[in-house]
Design brief:
single chain; four-stranded antiparallel beta sheet; 49% strand
Length: 125
């Protein structure tokens, strides 16, 4: 599975962005997909993830109420709608996928097998 993240950009605080993660290669429908982010000088952190059926999602505290993840298996694409953006959301956002991920491990980066190249999100105050 190859992943391509896109949709990042520059936005003012309070604004919105929608990121996309497009997959190619093997079947996509059986994979959990997660979004992680890494700000300068900080470790990569979990943002939100969605299971293969789209019915189960898991969000970090920072994402709850503001970010929504969804997927279209027919298009092999996962979307991250980010609203009410804050300057602290500034980071490179990565999408990742894996098959052996259960609900309790959705936030663990080591459980994901495939990673995209990242897309920069910059939020100005």
């Amino acid at each position: 599975v190859q992943l391509q993240a896109s949709g990042g950009g520059f936005v003012q605080a309070g604004g919105s962005l929608r990121l996309s993660c497009a997959a190619s290669g093997r079947t996509f429908s059986g994979y959990t997909v997660g979004w992680f982010r890494q700000a300068p000088g900080k470790e990569r952190e979990f943002v939100v993830a969605i299971k293969w059926n789209g019915e189960t999602t898991y969000s970090s505290d920072s994402a709850k109420g503001r970010f929504t993840i969804s997927r279209d298996n027919a298009k092999k694409t996962v979307y991250l709608q980010m609203n009410s953006l804050k300057p602290e959301d500034t980071a490179v956002y990565y999408c990742a996928s894996g098959r052996r991920i259960i609900s309790s491990t959705m936030s663990r980066s080591d459980m994901y097998d495939y990673w995209g190249q990242g897309t920069q999100v910059t939020v100005s105050s």
